[in-house]
Structure formats: structure tokens, C-alpha cells
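Quick one, C-alpha cells below. Sequence please?
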């Protein structure tokens, strides 16, 4: 049903055009409707998009503004245009419920002579086209509610002779009628068994500002702690979370707003989820840690959400692998609360370390802020947590540091393994120390086995005779296996100042050596007093400190 512009009157025309302009520009610009009772300064509707300003001038001239009659109308348009030019608009739009004659259009075009402003006309044909595009607005402004509801109700009672196609058609028709109830809100719906699910949805991002809807919930408390916390975060601080209140938790639901929506409901399950927010002006942010006002650390992040609720406001920033949420009460002096959640799954050590170091800062306590180029948008002071928590985070950081060093040395990069055995943990720490040029005692090397090549010497005979001697040998490869990866560190030397040969193998080897055919004899040697061999990479500096370094792994005894 097309709008009959002759019947809507001046107030109706203004209201229709205002709703239409809101629908056209709300998602990308700021729309302001001027109440002309105190003088509109040449502006009926102002649309601001960055540096560009559009001014809409509404004239309910059904018969246009011909020169032969209505002579005052052209002067009125000229005056409105002149007042609007004081605001230096990028575009000026004249809106009328009629189509212009060539003479009238020439008059409008002439207004912009010697000016840079763009001049445009929205006449009847353009308005009809826009209303057809926004069919729900057209339905809203043309409906006879009682007649339409009665007609749809009779359709619902009819036999669905066309099967599923008729069902789809009837549901779509009912949806169109619901869309026509309001120019700002609509209701999505679904049937699940005997339950009808109704979902209130804004037609545009500013529906809640233009046509506020107040929802009052009376609960059958007390709620479970997790549900109470979710309600507080979502309603109290405006965090973007879906919250579900089951039937048993809701005594009544009272809605105040448009007449068609208002009322009290009982025996209902209530779900609310955040509407897609308008894009933030700025998304780059820094998570900054402070000590006495001085910045001690700063981490880049993405500003994901700014929200408001009945208790206070919320800030949510995203980091690679995690996010931080701030809930800041309106009450002066009331402490803010903070939630930091993260997952190392799928992250390489470098990215995982960044999250763990943020966690370390939060555990240590002190001041922190979320900053953008426009200033601080949230922050607070955190208490220091328990020593046990400090130690847990420190150990995990140490593991990731070891893994990052070894991956970089081997040029093999992969996500942090979900599980690590105690043996893998010891081997990884050894590998890091070796890469850094240290001697390391290997708990996995209690002995060495070598084969004689037939050459004889007094030192060899003494060793085979049971004396202890220093021993240094080499291996072409030393590798650790982690998450199914073979990480080759390169050739190593092994060494111990006091080793002895096993008697069981050394006696036959000594006899064979004395007989002149020691070639091929196998001998096992062990460090004295149950100690282990020392290792160092062959690529380490020649002047490397020869004293072995400690592994320093909590819960593991130091090898000797």
C-alpha cells in the first residue's frame, strides 16, 4: 500500500521523512532532528559523517512552488537555504511530497550558483522509491492494524493445502505484519514444540536511543552464583554476553515501550544477547602497567567493546590469545573489577610468552591502564596475589622461554605442546642451556660405550685396569624430541674428569689388547660415584666456562 502524501499532513510528512533519513544514515553517520519551535536556523535534519554535513529542509508543498501562485514559497525556500549556508554544508537536500516542474527544478539548481555546496531534491518519486526499499516503514505508516491483524488471523486458520510452501508463506506474511508494527523495533519468532520463542530486534543501531524499551525482570531468587555474575556483567556493566534466565528463575517480565510491545509476561524463559555495536571510532589501544606513575610495560591490544549498564561501564580489549574485561562502577571510590582470560592453544612460544608476561604483571599487582590516542579509558590498582600463583606463572614462563630459544636455534616453529612429560621438560631445559653455550650435566647419560680401534696406549691400559681417568668424547648429533618433532641441536662433546671402565667388559678388552687384536672390543665406562656425563655443543666458544650450570627446575633434583 503506497503512501498517500496528500493525506498525511505536515506533521505526518515530517515524521515519515525523519524516520526515513534515520534509516538511511544511522549506521554510518550522526543524525540529528531539529525541533523548530525555537527557530531551526535553516536545519530540519542534520546528518554528520566525518567532515561532511548534509542538511535536509522539509517543505510540505503538495502543489510545488510555481511562479503563478504560492509566490511566497520560493522566498521561503531561499531564506531556508541562506540560513543553512551559515553552517557550510557539503550537501543541501530539499524534500517535498511532489514532483518538480522543469522551472521549479531550475530554480532549486540556481540556489547553488557560485557556491561549492551540492544541491539535491527528494521529490515524490524519490520518496516513493525509498519507502519501497524500506517496506517495513511504509507498512508502519500505512497500516490499519485491526484490519491487517484480522486478515492475517483468518489466513492462519485456513487449511494449509500447499504444504510446507504454504507454511513458509504464512510465516513470511506474519513477519511482514510484525515488521510493520514499529519503525524502530521488530520481533523475530519461532515455534519449538509447544513454545513460541520471541526475539526483540532493533531495526537500526540507534533503535534503543530513538525508541527506548525498558525491561523489568522480577526473579525467583536467589540465582546460582554463575548466573548472578553473568547478569551483573551484562546488565550491570553492559558487557556483550548472552545471558539465559530459565523459566524457574523468572517470576515476571514487564516491558515498557511502544504500545504493541508493552505488557507483563509470566512463565517465560528470557534470553538477551548484545546487539551488534556501532563501529568504535578507535580500535587501537595499549595495556599499560605503572609503578608510581612511571610506565614499566606496555602491550598493544585491540579495543573491542565499550559498554554501559545500570551499575557502571565496561571496557573490553582483545589480545592475541586472550582478552581483558574491566567493569568500572559509577559510584566514586568503588573498586573496579577485572577479568583476564587467555588460552595458549595454537600459539607459538613468542605469542604465548606475551600473554604470560601480562599475567605475571597482573599477579604482581600495582597500577594499570587501558589507553588510546584520546587518553585513558579505564584502569585501576590490583593487589598482589599469593606466592603460589607467582611461582606457577613463573614456571610456565620459564618453560615457554626454553621452548622459544630451542625453536629459534633449530629453525623449527610450532605451537606450544598441550602436554609435556617430566623427561621432556628436563631435556628442553638442557637443550636451552646447551644452545646458550653452557656445560650441562645430563641425567640421561650415566655411561658411555665405545669400540676399540686396536690402537694401544698406557692411558687406555690404565683405564681398562680399573683406574679412573678423565674422558672426553664426541657425537655428531644431539637431539631432543618434543611434540613429535626431532630438534637437532648439532654435534656435542661429552666429558667427565673421573670415569672408570666396567670390569665385566674391560678385562676381555685388556687381554685382547695385550694379544695384539683389541680392534672391535666394546668397553663401557661410567663416571665415578654415580655421577653423570657433562655435555657441551661443539659450536660453543672455546673459552666457555667448564663448570656445569644448574638446571634450576622446581620439583626436579639437580643431577651431579
Amino acid at each position: 500500500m503506497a503512501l498517500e502524501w496528500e493525506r498525511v499532513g505536515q506533521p505526518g510528512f515530517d515524521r515519515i521523512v525523519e524516520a526515513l533519513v534515520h534509516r538511511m544514515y544511522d549506521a554510518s553517520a550522526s543524525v540529528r532532528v531539529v525541533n523548530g519551535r525555537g527557530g531551526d536556523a535553516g536545519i530540519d535534519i542534520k546528518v554528520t559523517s566525518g567532515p561532511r554535513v548534509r542538511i535536509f529542509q522539509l517543505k510540505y508543498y503538495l502543489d510545488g512552488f510555481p511562479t503563478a501562485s504560492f509566490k511566497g514559497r520560493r522566498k521561503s525556500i531561499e531564506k531556508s537555504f541562506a540560513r543553512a549556508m551559515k553552517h557550510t554544508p557539503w550537501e543541501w537536500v530539499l524534500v517535498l511530497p511532489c514532483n518538480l516542474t522543469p522551472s521549479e527544478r531550475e530554480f532549486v539548481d540556481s540556489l547553488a550558483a557560485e557556491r561549492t555546496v551540492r544541491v539535491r531534491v527528494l521529490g515524490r518519486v524519490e520518496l516513493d522509491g525509498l519507502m519501497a526499499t524500506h517496506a517495513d516503514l511504509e507498512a508502519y505508516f500505512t497500516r490499519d492494524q485491526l484490519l491487517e491483524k484480522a486478515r492475517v488471523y483468518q489466513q492462519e486458520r485456513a487449511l494449509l493445502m500447499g504444504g510446507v510452501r504454504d507454511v513458509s508463506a504464512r510465516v513470511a506474511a506474519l513477519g511482514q505484519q510484525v515488521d510493520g508494527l514499529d519503525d524502530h523495533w521488530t520481533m523475530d519468532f519461532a515455534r519449538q514444540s509447544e513454545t513460541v520463542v520471541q526475539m526483540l530486534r532493533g531495526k537500526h543501531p540507534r533503535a534503543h536511543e530513538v525508541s527506548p524499551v525498558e525491561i523489568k525482570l522480577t526473579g525467583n531468587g536467589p540465582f546460582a552464583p554463575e548466573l548472578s555474575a553473568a547478569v551483573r556483567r551484562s546488565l550491570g556493566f553492559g558487557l556483550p554476553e548472552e545471558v539465559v534466565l530459565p523459566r524457574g528463575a523468572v517470576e515476571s517480565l514487564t516491558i515498557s515501550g511502544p504500545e504493541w510491545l508493552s505488557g507483563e509476561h509470566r512463565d517465560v524463559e528470557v534470553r538477551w544477547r548484545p546487539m551488534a555495536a556501532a563501529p568504535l571510532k578507535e580500535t587501537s589501544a595499549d595495556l599499560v602497567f605503572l609503578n608510581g606513575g612511571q610506565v614499566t610495560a606496555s602491550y598493544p591490544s585491540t579495543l573491542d567493546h565499550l559498554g554501559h549498564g545500570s551499575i557502571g561501564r565496561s571496557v573490553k580489549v582483545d589480545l592475541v590469545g586472550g582478552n581483558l574485561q574491566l567493569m568500572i562502577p559509577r559510584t566514586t571510590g568503588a573498586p573496579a573489577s577485572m577479568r583476564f582470560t587467555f588460552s595458549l592453544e595454537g600459539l607459538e612460544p613468542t605469542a604465548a610468552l606475551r600473554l604470560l608476561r601480562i599475567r605475571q604483571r597482573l599477579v604482581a599487582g600495582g597500577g594499570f591502564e587501558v589507553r588510546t590516542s584520546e587518553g585513558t579509558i579505564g584502569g585501576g590498582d590490583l593487589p598482589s596475589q599469593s606466592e603460589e600463583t607467582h611461582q606457577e606463572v613463573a614456571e610456565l614462563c620459564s618453560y615457554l622461554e626454553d621452548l622459544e630459544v630451542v625453536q629459534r636455534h633449530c629453525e623449527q616453529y610450532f605451537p606450544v605442546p598441550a602436554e609435556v612429560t617430566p623427561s621432556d621438560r628436563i631435556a628442553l631445559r638442557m637443550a636451552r642451556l646447551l644452545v646458550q653455550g653452557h656445560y650441562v650435566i645430563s641425567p640421561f647419560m650415566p655411561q658411555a660405550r665405545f669400540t676399540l680401534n686396536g690402537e694401544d696406549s698406557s692411558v687406555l691400559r690404565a683405564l681398562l685396569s680399573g683406574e679412573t681417568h678423565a674422558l672426553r668424547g664426541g657425537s655428531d648429533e644431539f637431539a631432543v624430541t618434543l611434540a613429535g618433532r626431532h630438534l637437532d641441536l648439532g654435534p656435542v662433546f661429552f666429558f667427565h674428569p673421573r670415569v672408570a671402565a666396567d670390569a665385566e667388559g674391560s678385562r676381555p678388552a685388556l687381554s685382547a689388547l695385550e694379544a695384539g687384536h683389541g680392534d672391535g672390543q666394546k668397553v663401557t665406562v661410567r663416571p665415578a660415584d654415580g655421577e653423570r656425563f657433562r655435555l657441551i655443543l661443539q659450536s660453543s666458544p672455546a673459552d666457555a666456562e667448564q663448570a656445569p650450570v644448574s638446571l634450576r627446575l622446581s620439583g626436579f633434583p639437580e643431577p651431579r
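Residues 426 and 556 are 8 Å apart (CA to CA). The radius of gyration is 40 Å.
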